[in-house]
Amino acid sequence: MNAPSTPRTLDDLPHPRGLPFFGNALAMQPRHFHLQIEQWAQTQGRLFTLKLGPTRWLAVNDAALSQQVLRDRPDGFRRVSNLEPIAQELGLNGLFSAEGDRWREQRRIWMATLNATQLRRFHDQLAEITGRLLARWQRAADRGEAVDVAHDLMRYTVDVTMRFALGYESDTLERDDDVIQRHLDKIFPAVNERLTALFPYWRYIKLPRDRALDRALAALQVEVNTLVAKARERLRDQPGLREAPTCFLEALLAAQEKGGTGISDETVSANVLTALLAGEDTTANSLAWTIHHCCERPDVYAAMQAEAQAFLGDAAIPRADRFPHLLPHTDAAINETLRLKPVAPFFFLEALRDTVLDGLQIPAGTRLMLLLRTAVGSAPSSVPTPRFDPKPDDPDKAEAGPGRAPTMPFGYGPRMCPGRNLALAEMRSVALMLARHFDLEAVPQAQPVSEVISFTLVPHNLRVRLHRRDKVT
Ligand code: HEM
Questions:
Q1: Is 413 inside a domain boundary?
Q2: How confident is the model at residue 11 (pLDDT cuts 50, 70, 90)?
Q3: pLDDT, tens digit, for every residue of 368-389?
Q4: Disulfide-capable partner of 71 in 278, 319, 413, 423 (CB 3.0 to 4.6 Å)?
Q5: Which of 358, 350, 363, 342 has the alpha carbon at shortest distance from 407?
Q6: 2 within a domain of the structure (yes/no)
Q7: Is the CB of 283 under 6 A from ligand 1?
Q8: Considering its fold, how many domains does the chain have in total?
Q9: What is the whole-number distance in angstroms between the Cα of residue 416 and the centre of ligand 1?
Q10: Domain holding 330: CATH number?
Q11: 419 C-alpha to ligand 1 centroid (Å)
Q12: In ligand 1, which atom is closest to the CA atom of 165?
C-alpha cells in the first residue's frame, strides 16, 4: 500500500464526537465497550482516534497494519504501561505483562516447554481429563440439567493447565468446592476493572470488592506455593528433570536454580498464576462460543457429529496423538468461532519510540487499540457473519487467501500465544467428544446469549441441555 508523502499526524485523523473532559468514555458501557468501538470503526475508517478521559487513543482497524505493530515488539511497542504495575501489585507480573529483557528471559522458557514435542507426550493425560468432562456431562444429561457449559469448561481447562504446564494432578472437574477454581474466577474481572479505571482508587482506599480480591489472591498464593513445593520435590528426587523438564514449572525452577537469570521466587509464582489465568478463560470461553455456534447451526453440528462418529468409531474419547492433520468440519467450527469470537477482540498497546505507520506519525507514548475482529471482515454489520467452510485453513494464518483476510485469535509476532498448540488440542478433544456423545438443545434464558467483556470475551446467558446419543432407552 502506498503511504502518502507528507506524514499525517494524529490530529488529522477522524474521531467520533465526544464530551469535554470525558471524551468518548461515557458512550461506552463497561461490559460492552467493544461493541461501541467496533460500531465507530464502521464509520471512522481504518485509522481513527478516541478519547477516554484525558487520554487519546489511536484505533487501528486494519489487519495488515495491526500485524506491522504486533511484529515490532518488544522494542517498538509494548502492552499498555498501566498493565505491568497493576499485575505487579496483584502478584501476576509474569510473561503476559512483562516487557523488555524480563519478557525475553521468561518467553524462552515458556516456548521450550509448551511446544508440540511436549504436547505429544501429554495425550494420555489429555484424554483422561476429557473423559472426566464426558462423565460430568453424562451425569448432567441424566439429570436433565441445563448446563452452564462455560463454567464446566473452566474446570476442564484448569485441570489441563495444571497437569500440562505445572505438572500437578488436580481434579476440579470432580470437586465442586475447588479452591483454585473459585478464586481464579475473581481475578480477570478485577484486572479488567483496574485497567479501565480512570483513577487508581484502590491504592488509596479498599472497597469491599478489593478486599474480596485480596482474599482470593491470598488463598491462591497458598495453592501456588503447594504447586511450587511439589515441583521442587520432583527436581530434588529426580535430578535428571533439570535437563529434561516435563513441564513449564520444572523448567522455570531449574533455570532459577542455575542462577544468572533474574528469575526470583516472585517471578516463579507470577508465572504459575499467569499459566492458570491465561489457560483457563481463554480456551474455556472459545469452546463455549463453539458450542453456542453449534446450537445456532444444527447443520454444522450434524456434520461435526458425522465426522466424530467416523473418526472415533467405538472409542469414547479422542486421543490427540491420533488426530489427523485435518478434521474439516470440527476445525471449521473451531476456526470460525475463533475468528468471530476472539477472546481478545482488541489489543491495547503503547508506542515505545517515534514511528510512522502507513504514513501516520506516531509519537512515543501514543496508546493504540488494535481492532482484531472488524478488521478481518468486510461484512456491513459491525461483526463478520459466520462462514463454516470445511476447507483447510489455519486459524491464525498470516496470509489471506481469496476472500479470507488474516485472523489473529492467538495474536501475532514475537508475543504470539505460547499456549496455542495446547489450546487447539483441548478444543479439538472437547468438540469431538461432545459431537460423538451428545445432541444439543439451547435453553432459552430471559435474555439472549450476549457478549460481555471480562478481560476476555465471555458468552453471557449460555445454558445448554445435553442429550446423550449413546443412552439405551
Ligand atoms: C483458545 C485459547 C487461547 C486463545 C484464543 C489465546 C489467545 C491469546 C492472545 C490473543 C494472546 C496475546 C498475543 C499477542 O500479544 O500477540 C495470548 C498471549 C498469551 N497466552 Fe494465550 N490464548 C489461548 C490459550 C492459552 C493457553 C492454554 C495458555 C497457557 C497455558 C496461554 C498462555 C498465554 C501467555 C502466557 C500469553 C502471553 C505471551 C507473551 O506475552 O509473550 N494461552 N493468548
A1: yes
A2: very high
A3: 999 988 655 433 344 556 677 7
A4: 413
A5: 342
A6: no
A7: yes
A8: 1
A9: 7
A10: 1.10.630.10
A11: 6
A12: 30
